[in-house]
Structure formats: C-alpha cells, structure tokens
Amino acid sequence: MSETVDVWAAAAEFDRSTVCEDQTAAEGDRKRVVDLLFPLEKWPTLPLEHYALGLNPSGATMTYCRFMEFGTPHLGSIKGGSAAKHIMYRHNSGEWRLAAPLRGMEPQNAWELLRAQFLQAFTAVAAGDFEAVDDLEVLRFGSALVTKSLATYFPEHFLPVYSADHLRKFLALLGGTSGADSPTWRSNRRVLRIDGPRRGLGTIHVLGIDTEAPPHEEAARLRTALSWPAGDQRGSGYGHPGTG
Predict the structure, then answer these.
(1) Residue 86 in domain
(2) How confident is the model at residue 182 (pLDDT cuts 50, 70, 90)?
(3) What does the DSSP assignment read for 47-110?
(4) Fewest CB atoms less than 10 Å from the CB: which of 70, 179, 182, 184?
(5) CA–CA separation, 80 and 161 (whole Å)
C-alpha cells in the first residue's frame, strides 16, 4: 500500500469473508482468557504465581503474562522484545525485575499494587471512564500488555493492535493525531473512533500487520483497513495485529 492509496476506499472494498477463520480463532483465544483461565472475577485474588513471567514455566497452566505473550497468537502478538513489558517478572537468574514505580518493593507488595491498578483499569473501562486509565502510573510501564488485556476483556472498546508505533502510523494515515505522551490504549481508542461519514463508512478496524518490517514501511504495516457499520461486532478486526 503506497502513500497515494485511499485507505477509506481500500476499507470499503475489503472482503470480510476472507478473515472468518481468523476471527473464529481469535474469539477462541479470547474465551480461554476471559471464561476459562483468567475471568475478571478471579483478578481480585489472583496470586503472583499465576501472573508473572518466569514463574511456573513447566506447570500445567501458563501464567497470565506467559499466556498473553505466547498462548494467544490469534488475539495479536506481543511476542519478543523485552520482558519488561510485563511490568514485573522473574528473570531466569532468579532475580525479580520491577518497573520503576515498583523498584525497592518486595515482589508480593509490588504485585498487590500492580494488581490493584489492573483492577482499577478494568473497573474504569467497564464504566466507560477511559480517561481514568491514563492516571494509573504503573500500567504505563507495560502498555502493550495492558492494551492487549483491555482489548481481550473489552473487545467492543479496543482494537487488537498493541504497538504504539503502529497506532501512531494508523492515526496519521486516517487523519487523526496522537500526542507524544499518549498511552497506547488511548491511541488505540482514537483509531477505533475514526469513521468516514462522507464515505458511508462506519468504525475503522485494522487487520494484517507485519511487525517485522521497519516502522517506515507502510505496506508491511497496514495491509488492509476495513470497516463495517458502527456497533457491528461481527467484524472485530481480529487477525494478525501488531505488537508493542
């Protein structure tokens, strides 16, 4: 896709039937998280050993962080890069690595603070108070994981795209703007809200991102933008979205 291609026109022409299998697989991944392994009602008492990367690596059940990074590929990848995206994790040396606001704390105390902020975010989104999530300082240190979490539990409010770079590019392509300090989840919702009433298009959904391509290569980062009427969740935008 070159700089001269009309993204809105490409969206209007996209054949949604070509991604039915991807959407079914994504919904299967999502249900394993929200219904089977990590339902929201378990979060208030979720133990650290069920959350952190580096714990229980050979157990029958993956921890939340391991499952979100490696066990839900159809929901969009956050694989690779630094494990710091999990905000706190146990290094293979046995040492705990904590995000800046948690440093100096015992792991259990750090986890209780982190878990509390996840719960605040979930509660705020459920109430439609999206701005409240921006105030949760600890979560800003794991924006890819947090955005994927929000998109998994609340797919009606977020796209399955978790890379700040990708979202900034999409906003530029679609005529939006993103502040330099905008949290990834806020940029995500800005992309979601963009529509094209003059073209008869509804909410834009983004699909098919190749995260191995250099950031400046639009063609490898946004293969197709697709749309359907606002509120229609049949086309959830699931596919192979990008990472953070």
Answers:
(1) yes
(2) confident
(3) -GGGT-TTSSTTSSS--HHHHHHHS-GGG----SS-GGGGSEEE-TTS-EEE-GGGTTS-HHHH
(4) 179
(5) 15
Number of domains in the chain: 1
Pairing mode, strands 204-207 and 88-90: unpaired
Alpha-carbon dihedral of residues 13, 170, 78, 153, nearest 10 degrees? -80
At 227 the three-state DSSP class reads: strand
Q: Which residues contact 161 (CB under 8 A, 6 or more apart)?
A: 76, 167, 170, 188, 191, 206, 209, 237, 241, 242
In a domain, 47, yes or no: yes
The CA–CA distances, whole Å, from 74 to 14, 29, 135 equal 20, 7, 30
| Within-domain flag for 10 | no
91: containing domain: 26-31+38-142
CA angle 53, 58, 60 (to 5 degrees): 100
Query: Which contiguous run of DSSP H or E holds residue 173?
Result: helix 164-173
Is residue 156 pLDDT above 80, yes or no? Answer: yes
Provide mean pLDDT across the span 125-137.
Answer: 97
Number of C-alpha atoms within 13 angstroms, CB side, residue 214? Answer: 2
244 domain-assigned? no
pLDDT band at 212 (very low <50, low <70, confident <90, very high): very low
Residue 10 pLDDT grade (very low, low, confident, very high; cuts 50, 70, 90): low
